[in-house]
């Protein structure tokens, strides 16, 4: 979301009673978003030469790579919810499918790690064509402002979203707050010039204010990443969290400095040939300036008069490229970044030789495993709250029986890749050591059941 859209949430009257000083939280979020997108205050540096000016520093994109690695580590393909009630399972699966939750959540989780948090919001859009009217929206931290919180959780918030209708842009500001007896949801629509627009004309069916009696918590859950945010004044909300690279911005700067230097090494270290002045030709350009060049295709013998034979020699003056030093420095800095983000050494390595299976991670009790367990616990709690909110709206809309359970738990898939060579090598070693049978080794090598492996073993024996 751009800075202009963010401003809507802070303008008086546009998004409810936003506490004074809360805008201070978003200076950090804007900076983290800039770094995540390849920016940063070190992105430009001075050019060399008489002309001066600035040039863009090449970026390795380490911040985005770090957030992507954490997202894949904590939520992999195959992660599912475990339900105790078949009616609840049927409704939630349908809502998540129609909301394209599984496709969108990994990308959302990556932004959560980058910006310090995000919101999983459940809302009712109205039933259409036989589908459920319940939807799940994923809102990044830059599009959300907390309006109320306690020591445990955020209890109220404001959202901003851009609406296009009739070729015009509108800003929809929504707030959710509890007044003690009910959840109050308010919607306001504004034109680009700041004037209030007709909500029913642009979004028919959406009420300006709705009350859900008996509901003590909002229909959203804030998923926090990183540690608690350090507050500067009493108006800031510490529960927003901080980026996973909040304490590593200096390291990110150094990574880009070394990466830029590596690229410059090839630019500045191009082959340099020193030739005698006699061998240099000249041509006049369209501006009347004489340009000198050395014709490498000229094979004609020429007579040159000189008293020093050294002046006739063509000398290779190319400098040695310091590639190895740059690569080693990048590796050390990436390992440092991993340590600062709670990952084990080598987690961001671009070379082979890192840990391949989750079992190895667990057995080492590594930082990566502990970080994964920490974030998965928070994600599991947020998903459980999401299911609860879906069930609440489902019962209100008549899509779920009143007696249906409102709970579910996340079952995370391992998601660690193991190639065929590693699996085969391990099975052969175990069989050679007498730990497993030949049939068990075959089942692990080919990925088949033990019964199929036993049948394969009998077939091979009969053919012999």
Question: Mind explaining what this structure looks like?
Answer:
The chain has 464 residues and is an alpha+beta fold. The chain has 3 domains: 3-248 and 366-411, no CATH class; 273-317, no CATH class; 420-463, no CATH class. The protein has 13 helices and 16 strands. The chain has helices at residues 3-10, 25-36, 62-74, 86-98, 101-115, 199-202, 249-268, 323-341, 358-364, 367-396, 420-432, 438-446, 450-463, and strands at residues 44-46, 54-56, 80-83, 117-124, 134-140, 144-149, 154-165, 168-178, 182-191, 209-213, 220-224, 273-274, 281-284, 290-293, 315-316, 408-411. It has a 5-stranded antiparallel sheet. A 3-stranded antiparallel sheet has the order 5-4-11. Strand 7 (154-165) and strand 8 form a beta hairpin. The longest helix has 30 residues, at 367-396. It is extended, with a radius of gyration of 31 Å. The model is unreliable at 1-5 and 12-16 (pLDDT under 50).
């Amino acid at each position: 979301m751009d800075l202009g859209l963010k401003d809507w949430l802070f303008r008086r009257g546009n998004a409810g009673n936003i506490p004074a000083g809360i805008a201070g939280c978003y200076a950090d979020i804007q900076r983290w978003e800039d770094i995540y997108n390849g920016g940063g205050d070190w992105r430009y540096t001075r050019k060399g030469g008489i002309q001066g000016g600035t040039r863009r520093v090449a970026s390795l994109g380490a911040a985005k790579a770090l957030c992507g690695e954490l997202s894949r580590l904590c939520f992999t393909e195959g992660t599912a919810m475990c339900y105790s009630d078949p009616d609840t399972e049927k409704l939630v699966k349908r809502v998540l499918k129609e909301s394209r939750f599984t496709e969108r959540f990994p990308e959302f989780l990556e932004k959560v790690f980058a910006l310090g948090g995000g919101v999983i919001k459940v809302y009712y859009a109205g039933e259409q064509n036989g589908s459920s009217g319940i939807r799940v929206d994923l809102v990044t931290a830059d599009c959300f402002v907390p309006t109320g919180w306690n020591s445990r959780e955020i209890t109220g918030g404001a959202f901003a979203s851009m609406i296009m209708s009739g070729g015009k842009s509108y800003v929809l500001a929504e707030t959710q707050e509890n007044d003690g007896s009910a959840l109050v949801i308010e919607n306001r629509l504004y034109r680009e010039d700041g004037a209030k627009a007709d909500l029913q004309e642009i979004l028919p069916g959406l009420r300006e204010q709705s009350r859900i009696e008996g509901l003590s918590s909002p229909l959203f859950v804030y998923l926090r990443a990183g540690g608690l945010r350090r507050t500067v004044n009493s108006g800031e909300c510490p529960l927003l969290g901080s980026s996973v690279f909040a304490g590593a911005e200096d390291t990110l700067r150094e990574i880009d400095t070394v990466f830029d230097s590596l690229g410059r090494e090839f630019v500045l270290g191009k082959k340099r040939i020193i030739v005698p002045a006699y061998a240099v030709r000249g041509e006049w350009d369209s501006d009347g300036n004489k340009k000198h060049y050395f014709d490498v295709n000229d094979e004609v013998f020429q007579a040159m008069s000189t008293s020093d034979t050294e002046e006739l020699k063509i000398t290779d003056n190319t400098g040695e490229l310091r590639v190895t030093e740059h690569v080693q420095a990048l590796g050390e800095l990436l390992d440092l970044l991993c340590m600062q983000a709670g990952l084990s050494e080598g987690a961001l390595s671009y070379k082979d030789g890192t840990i391949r299976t989750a079992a190895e991670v667990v057995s080492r009790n590594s930082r990566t495993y502990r970080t994964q367990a920490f974030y998965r616990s928070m994600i599991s709690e947020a998903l459980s709250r999401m299911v609860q909110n879906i069930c609440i709206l489902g019962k209100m809309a008549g899509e779920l029986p009143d007696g249906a359970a409102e709970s579910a738990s996340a079952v995370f898939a391992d998601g660690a890749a193991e190639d065929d060579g590693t699996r085969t090598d391990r099975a052969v070693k175990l069989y050679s050591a007498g730990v497993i049978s030949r049939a068990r080794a075959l089942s692990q090598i080919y990925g088949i059941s033990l019964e199929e492996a036993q049948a394969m073993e009998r077939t091979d024996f009969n053919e012999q």
